[in-house]
Structure formats: structure tokens, C-alpha cells
Amino acid sequence: MPKKKPATPRSYQVAMQELQEIVDAVENQELDVDTLSEKVKYALELVQFCKDRLRSTEDTINQAFGDD
């Protein structure tokens, strides 16, 4: 049975925590090659999520303060 894909994080903070857990596991060499591949792919998704959230927040701040 295929593994279930992790859900999109609820918040920036949760995404950052998950990224830190992945980094810690990689640094401690706790992952086998197959798991490592999955975790790296998920980490890339988390990074994109964080970038999008930061961009969205920046846009909101710029709109609020008129810095278009």
C-alpha cells in the first residue's frame, strides 16, 4: 500500500518545525535512502509553502502601508 502524502502544513510555524525535524534527521543520518528521498521532496514542498506565505505576508504589509 502506498504511503500517504503528508498534508499541507496549517501554518508557517508548523512548516518550519517540520523542516527542522527533517534537517535533524538528515544530519543525524537517521534516514534510509528511500525515506531520505521522500523527506527531501516533502522538504522542498515545505520550503515553497514558506516562501509563498512570506510573499503573501509581504504583499499584505505593502498594501497596508502603501509601499506598492
Task: Describe what you observe in this structure.
By secondary structure, the chain is mainly α. Helices cover 72% and strands 0% of the residues. The protein has two helices and no strands. Helix 1 packs antiparallel against helix 2. The protein starts with 11 loop residues before the first helix and ends with a helix. The mean pLDDT is 89.
Keywords:
single chain; 68 residues; mainly alpha; 72% helix; elongated
TL;DR of this structure?
The chain has 68 residues and is mainly α. Helix content is 72%, strand content 0%. The protein has helices spanning 12-27, 33-65.
What is the tally of helical segments? Answer: 2
Low-confidence stretches: none
The biggest beta sheet reads: none
Shape: elongated
Order of helices and strands: HH
**Mean of residue pLDDT values:** 89
Percentage of β-strand residues: under 5%
The number of E-state strands comes to 0
Radius of gyration: 15 Å
Q: How helical, in percent, are the residues?
A: over 70%
What is the CA-CA span between the terminal residues? Answer: 49 Å
How would you name the oligomeric state of the polypeptide chains in this document?
Answer: single chain
The computed structural class is: mainly alpha
Task: Spell out the blueprint of helices and strands.
Layout: H1 12-27, H2 33-65
